[in-house]
């Protein structure tokens, strides 16, 4: 059974929340350098075997075994005040490398542009080529945001959080979110001007060892989750680009759209 969420010292002035499912090799301590100002509270949900590990690292602490997204489902379902307090909530894998300044910039960009669901661009091993950073871009409007590091607005989280437990592996749920949010004209984006680094090779973390021992095939689970929501094919596209340099933006608009890379 999951432990009750422990509220330690949330900052009343912070409007953003960064959540991590942390194992023994988690990199989240590099996100909260004591010498760096941060605009976000940290929620550490520990899934390892060392009693009390990381219990003083963040503003919230939680313990639950198992994979990330069912645990996030429990947290968000049982703690509605988290969904109501924060303007944006990010759920980040524990093998991502980024200092506090990068997380600050991610939240600020989402807030400034009114994104409902977004993510930073990803350096390192990636599952989807669209998530790699594109030089010269501020952000891209997209039809898809993956679940390695998604950022939800308050209203998007209200719509999507019930799906977090639909997949034991987490595969498939990122294809559901755009469908659910489309009814409200929501804005999705990959933010190229804010990058984090994925430090672990694909399919080598503790999640995949757990899936193997549990007999869960993530590909089959993804297909079933999508079918359950009437999604026949994954929709992973760029919709538009916003350049950092105005001249790049003008040249881009003059290019045939078939040359988009």
Question: How does the SSE layout of this entry go?
Answer:
Elements: E1 6-7, E2 16-22, E3 40-46, E4 60-63, H1 68-78, H2 80-85, E5 88-92, E6 96-97, H3 100-113, E7 117-123, E8 137-142, E9 151-153, H4 154-160, H5 173-181, E10 188-198, H6 206-214, H7 218-228, E11 238-243, H8 246-254
Parallel strand pairs: 2-3, 2-5, 3-4, 7-10
Antiparallel strand pairs: 1-4, 5-9, 6-10, 7-9, 8-10, 8-11
Question: Explain this structure to me?
Answer:
This protein has helices spanning 68-78, 80-85, 100-113, 154-160, 173-181, 206-214, 218-228, 246-254; strands spanning 6-7, 16-22, 40-46, 60-63, 88-92, 96-97, 117-123, 137-142, 151-153, 188-198, 238-243. Strands 1, 2, 3, 4, 5, 6, 7, 8, 9, 10 and 11 form an 11-stranded mixed sheet that branches. It is 29% helix and 23% strand. The chain contains 8 helices and 11 strands. The chain has a single domain (6-259), classed as Spore Coat Polysaccharide Biosynthesis Protein SpsA, Chain A, CATH 3.90.550. It is of the alpha/beta class and 261 residues long. The mean pLDDT is 91. It starts with 5 loop residues before the first strand and ends in a 7-residue tail after the last helix.
Summarize this entry quickly:
The protein is an alpha/beta fold. It has helices at 68-78, 80-85, 100-113, 154-160, 173-181, 206-214, 218-228, 246-254; strands at 6-7, 16-22, 40-46, 60-63, 88-92, 96-97, 117-123, 137-142, 151-153, 188-198, 238-243.
């Amino acid at each position: 059974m999951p432990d009750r969420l422990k509220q330690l010292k949330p900052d009343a002035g912070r409007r953003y929340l960064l959540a991590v499912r942390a194992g023994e090799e988690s990199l989240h301590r590099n996100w909260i350098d004591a010498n760096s100002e941060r605009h976000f509270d940290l929620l550490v949900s520990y899934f390892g075997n060392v009693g009390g590990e990381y219990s003083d690292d963040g503003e919230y602490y939680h313990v639950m075994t198992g994979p990330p997204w069912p645990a996030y489902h429990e947290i968000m379902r049982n703690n509605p005040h988290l969904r109501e307090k924060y303007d944006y909530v990010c759920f980040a894998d524990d093998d991502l490398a980024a200092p506090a300044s990068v997380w600050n910039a991610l939240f600020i960009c989402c807030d400034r542009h009114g994104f409902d669901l977004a993510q930073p661009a990803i350096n390192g091993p990636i599952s989807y080529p669209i998530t790699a950073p594109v030089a010269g871009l501020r952000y891209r409007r997209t039809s898809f945001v993956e679940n390695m590091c998604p950022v939800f607005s308050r209203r998007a989280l209200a719509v999507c959080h019930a799906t977090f437990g639909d997949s034991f592996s987490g595969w498939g749920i990122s294809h559901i979110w755009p469908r659910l949010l489309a009814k409200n004209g929501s804005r999705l984006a990959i933010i190229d001007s804010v990058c984090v680094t994925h430090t672990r090779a694909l399919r080598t973390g503790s999640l995949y060892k757990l899936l193997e021992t549990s007999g869960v095939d993530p590909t089959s689970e993804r297909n079933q989750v999508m079918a359950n929501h009437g999604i026949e094919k994954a929709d992973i596209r760029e919709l538009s680009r916003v350049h950092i340099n105005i001249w790049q933006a003008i040249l881009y608009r003059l290019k045939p759209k078939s040359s988009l890379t």
